[in-house]
Write a sequence for this structure.
């Protein structure tokens, strides 16, 4: 065996564990950010239409989803949501934490949504100091930038709210 072959095999053996633990863009089984959400038991409607990519480190759960620019829309005329072009955080089954890039307008203030938890048929969105639960079926459809959930006829679909809002 030549010295070059030995060095090549040594480098491959040395670097292969690093490649396995580094950031991985999933392309074999999961082909989109929406499918990645579903893999962790979340509905795809947590992201607006038009996600152009994502990456996920399976060892830590750190993820980033990429949109084609910033995005905002209203739901039921009272909830205004805003997404930055990059959304990041940590994902595990039924839980998104340390979320950045998504905010909601409450009264006159824009508050960052920092955590999303799925509990049975409910999705709880937390802004840190308070949270609100919504039925899971509100998130089966992906909203569209600019017009939300009903872009065909200009009417905004009703967004169901669980009346119980809790403070953290």
């Amino acid at each position: 065996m030549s010295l070059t072959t030995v060095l090549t095999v040594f480098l491959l053996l040395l670097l292969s564990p690093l490649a396995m633990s580094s950031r991985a863009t999933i392309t074999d089984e999961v082909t989109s950010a929406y499918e990645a959400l579903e893999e962790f038991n979340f509905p795809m409607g947590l992201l607006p239409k038009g996600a152009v990519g994502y990456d996920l480190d399976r060892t830590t759960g750190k993820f980033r989803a990429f949109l084609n620019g910033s995005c905002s829309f209203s739901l039921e005329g009272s909830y205004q949501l805003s997404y930055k072009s990059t959304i990041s955080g940590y994902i595990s089954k039924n839980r998104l934490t340390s979320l950045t890039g998504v905010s909601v307008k409450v009264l006159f203030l824009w508050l960052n949504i920092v955590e999303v938890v799925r509990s049975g048929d409910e999705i709880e969105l937390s802004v840190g100091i308070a949270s609100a639960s919504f039925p899971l079926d509100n998130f089966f459809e992906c909203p569209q930038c600019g017009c939300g959930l009903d872009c065909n006829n200009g009417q905004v679909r009703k967004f169901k709210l669980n009346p119980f809002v809790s403070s953290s």
User: Anything to note?
Assistant: The chain has one domain: 21-161. Residues 3-21 form the longest helix (19 residues). The mean pLDDT is 78.
